[in-house]
Amino acid sequence: SGVSDWHPNYYNVAQYGPDCEVFITLKASPTTQCIIGVRVGGTLSNPNSYGFNANGGGSGVHKILRVDNGTDTQLGATFNQTLAVGDSIGISAIGSTISAYYKPSGGSWTLLTSRTDTTYSSAGYLGLESEIGGWKCDDFTGGTASGTSAATTLSPVSYTHLRAHETD
């Protein structure tokens, strides 16, 4: 997929963190990739951030990324989790620990994996980026983390505050 196949967005109302988290709920069976991000800084065309790169194309193989000036660097090994409609995924950055979470529809949050990285330690925006045609999600939720595990009581933010930027 080329750069023009991706739609990056960020919640530009406030910066959160430096300890922060973001979560989404799947509304359709995803067929492509999506990245939800924390500590998003820089510009949308060349961001810096940490992201949970979720692959919905049936493979269930995901990764945690560090994005440096728009270039992805995978942190550690890939990990597996099948995703279905109604499931939720999330990422948190608590200190130098970047963690990916999963919650099955009607279930509880579980930690999928964690990585350690000290490159970005400041507050930043929350982000959502997806390939064209593959993801439908709801309940884009996040903010400053109040503890060391996935928050389940944050209220979803309004999509009207997400600002889209497409690179063609």
Give the helices and strands, then pairings.
Blueprint: E1 6-16, E2 20-26, E3 33-42, E4 47-55, E5 61-68, E6 71-80, E7 88-94, E8 97-103, E9 110-116, E10 124-131, E11 137-144, E12 162-164
Antiparallel strand pairs: 1-10, 1-12, 2-7, 2-11, 3-4, 3-10, 4-5, 5-6, 7-8, 8-9
Radius of gyration: 14 Å
The main sheet comes to: 7 strands, antiparallel
Tally of strands: 12
Order of helices and strands: EEEEEEEEEEEE
- The unreliable regions are 151-168
What is the average per-residue confidence, as pLDDT, rounded to a whole number? 80
Q: What helical percentage do the residues reach? A: under 10%
Cα distance, first to last residue?
13 Å
Structural class: mainly beta
Strand content: over 45%
Brief synopsis:
With 168 residues, the chain is mainly β. Helices cover 0% and strands 57% of the residues.
Q: How would you explain this protein's 3D organization?
A:
There is one protein chain. With 168 residues, this protein is mainly β. It is 0% helix and 57% strand. The strands form 2 sheets. The chain has a 7-stranded antiparallel beta sheet, with no helix packed on it. It has a 5-stranded antiparallel beta sheet with strand order 9-8-7-2-11, with no helix packed on it. Residues 151-168 have low confidence and may be disordered.
